[in-house]
Amino acid sequence: MMTSTTPRLESARWYVVLVLGLVYAVNIADRYVVATVLEPIRKEFGLSDSGVAWLTGVSLAFFYIFVGLPIARYADRANRRNIVAGAMILWSAATALLGLTQNYLQFLLARIAVGIGEAGGTPPSTSIIADNFPRGRRAYALTIYALGLPLGAWMGSSLAGAIVEHFHSWRAAFIALGVPGVIFGLLILLTVREPVRGRFELVTEDSAPAASFVETCRFLWTQRSAWHINAAGTVICLWGWGLLFWTQTYFERAYGLSTAEAGARLGTIYFWAGTVATIATSAILALPQMQDPKWIARLLAVIVAASTIPSFLIYLTHSLTVATAMLWIVVPAIYLYVGPTMALLLNFMPAPMRAQGMAISLLTANVANLIIAPTAVGWISDMLTGPLGGNAASLRYALLALSLTGFWAAYHYWTSVRSYAVDDLRVRTFGMDAAPLPAEA
Question: Which of 87, 106, 123, 301 has the greatest number of CB atoms lying within 10 Å of its CB?
């Protein structure tokens, strides 16, 4: 057990955060590029709104969900570095293949492969970071890791839109974003080390029994704080990422923007608002009082609740200027929750269950983000197209309904603090009799 931090150890820790943050960025970029070219794909394949949602969202999420759980189970006992690297090579290669597809079935199969690969990215990555930092510093480290989110969103929006405009083809964006990821996966194998599992806990990998999926689910259910944290993150994905999945398409329809114009506008907001919000969050989490998870949860509850109203105004207004201004307010709230929520959840899960716990969190989040939100919005939009006389107006009302779910996420953050004390004691003494806590490095 490390009791002090050397400069070499500190540099190694942050190198891992940097590399895995870039993995996260590529993951998000490969996912965002679909939202950027959603309308061209829909038109080329002759699909309805609900049809294109099934092709691009549900196809990825379905296999992400069912493959993610066994991968996470394996990651809680195997070399996580190798899993991350292999997963990245797979999803990046599959993303490039999307650019070579010529029909619906080919696109569907390649999209499924992307989902299988992406399932092995975040759970082992966050578990690796958790074993490189003590409990009090995880929220800060994972918030820096989460900078990959705005970077990836910019790559998948602005960069992808520019590539589409230059080559006059939506397929070029997939190829350009997929090929570099294969090379980066090899770099991970060569430069990232697998840390000792549970090194800052009372139970290390040498003494902790491997937890089954059923045991992980049972433990997560008894941890009421972790349950509410997971519910909050899930509903934020339904609210925030569900809205952003359709916003590019909505801007193209409602305001007549091209794919490149809408991508540049949204990509700029995603990158700058997301980056500034994430950096500001990391600075706040570095404050001494933010070592208390209750402060973190309450801060997130207030921010999300306050951002729900402008998220409604984005689609209520008929002014592109007002909608853009509201996005500058809402996007930071959608981004800044990621690192703190991951840290809160990981702190309430014992080391032998962390990858599986994160996989369960990602399962529910992706059901909300990639299945419920896209298909529900698409279905409502399709149903309203006739009565409202156009798919721009129908999509507007579908997004207005979804925007109000932000209040639901805020409720779960605020409620989670009620059982923090007992849940924290349970996870600290998991798997052994109560003992003095180890020194933090």
Answer: 123
